Structure formats: structure tokens, C-alpha cells
């Protein structure tokens, strides 16, 4: 026979009727605590509690614990994995299409269906660099293309590539390339001229 105290507990009755079906979704942290409390009270009143009832509660408790462990393991595995192919493609598209006024990391995370923290970790695992570094690399690459034109002022290139001003552009470019934008453009133009002259040199 069940004790009157346990009989009066609707949670305990649910466990007794449904056994393992009582196990709540793993995100409900109270499920484990409630089952533990019921089991401890039942064992304390073992003489007055139905043995089958105790078995049902114990089974439900084990299932909740197992579900929780599986959920934690899946979460840890997810944190260690990078972006999927479509997530990587989407994030890079957002960066590439908005170099002048880039999307925020929060926007990219939302587009990939991830939290900001998870997106940062996954992006770095996938590309080897954090999102802001990838953005800077793409800005510098775009700046190189514009510098090769040889006609655009540095201040306009800085604006087109999303740098705050020419000073910031020069600082970032030099950090990435090892020389200032003006110096790099002169060297690039000189190299281009030599290659052009070589192309038109008669060969006998």
C-alpha cells in the first residue's frame, strides 16, 4: 500500500501510473529533482510504499538522467564543430556583399541560426580566423583590387572598403601587407608596367 502522503502528491501518482513515461523533457531541470525527492521519500517509507511504485520512479529517474547526459554530450559536440557548408557560405556572402557597411556578428549568427558565442567559435574552427579578422582580410583584398586601378584617391578606397578613414585604412593595410597602400600601389604599378613591356618585347 502507498502512504497517504505519497498518494496525495500528483507528481508521484503520475510516476506510478506512467512509469518511464513520467520522464519530462531534459530541459526541465525540475524533473530530476522532483523524481529524486519522490524516490527518497518513498524509500524512507518503504514499508508503506508499493514496491512497483518505487521501481517506476527509479526507472523514470534513470531515464531523465540519461536524457540529460545525452543532451549535454550533444551540446558539447556542437560547440566543438564548425559551420556547416551552407552556414559558412551564408556568412561569407554577408561579409562579401557588405564590405563598406558590414553586417554585425549578431546578424551573421542569426542568418546561420546560431547564438553569437556559438557562431564565433564555429566560424573560427571553420576558417581558422575569427569573423572580424576575415572581414579585415576581405577589405584589404578589395583595397588591393582598387589600388591596382591607379586612379582612385586613397580616401575614396578607404570609404569603399568600409574603413573609417584614410588613417585607419593605412594602419590596417600596413599591418596586413607590410607596407602602406601608396607604397604598395607604386610597386604594383611598376611591376605591371614591366610585365606589359615584356609582353610587347619582340622575340626572334
From TrEMBL:
GO molecular function, one term: DNA-binding transcription factor activity
Matching SUPFAM superfamilies: Homeodomain-like
Keyword Plastid attributed: no
Keywords attached to this entry: DNA-binding, Transcription, Transcription regulation
Record domain HTH araC/xylS-type: where: 89-187
Keyword DNA-binding in annotation: yes
Name this protein carries in UniProt: Transcriptional regulator protein
Species in which this protein is naturally found: Rhodanobacter spathiphylli B39
Amino acid at each position: 500500500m502507498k502512504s497517504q502522503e505519497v498518494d496525495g502528491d500528483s507528481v508521484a501518482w503520475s510516476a506510478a501510473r506512467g512509469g518511464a513515461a513520467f520522464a519530462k523533457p531534459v530541459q526541465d531541470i525540475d524533473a530530476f529533482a522532483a523524481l529524486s525527492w519522490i524516490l527518497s521519500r518513498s524509500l524512507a517509507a518503504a514499508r508503506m510504499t508499493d514496491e512497483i511504485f518505487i521501481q517506476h520512479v527509479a526507472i523514470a529517474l534513470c531515464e531523465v538522467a540519461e536524457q540529460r547526459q545525452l543532451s549535454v554530450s550533444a551540446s558539447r559536440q556542437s560547440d566543438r564543430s564548425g559551420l556547416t557548408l551552407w552556414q559558412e557560405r551564408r556568412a561569407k556572402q554577408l561579409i562579401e556583399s557588405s564590405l563598406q557597411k558590414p553586417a554585425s556578428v549578431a546578424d551573421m549568427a542569426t542568418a546561420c541560426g546560431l547564438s553569437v558565442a556559438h557562431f564565433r567559435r564555429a566560424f573560427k574552427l571553420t576558417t581558422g580566423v575569427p569573423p572580424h579578422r576575415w572581414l579585415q582580410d576581405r577589405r584589404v583584398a578589395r583595397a588591393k583590387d582598387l589600388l591596382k586601378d591607379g586612379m582612385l584617391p586613397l580616401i575614396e578606397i578607404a570609404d569603399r572598403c568600409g574603413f573609417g578613414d584614410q588613417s585607419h585604412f593605412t594602419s590596417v593595410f600596413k599591418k596586413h601587407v607590410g607596407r602602406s597602400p601608396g607604397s604598395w600601389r607604386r610597386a604594383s604599378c611598376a611591376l605591371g608596367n614591366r610585365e606589359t613591356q615584356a609582353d610587347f618585347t619582340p622575340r626572334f
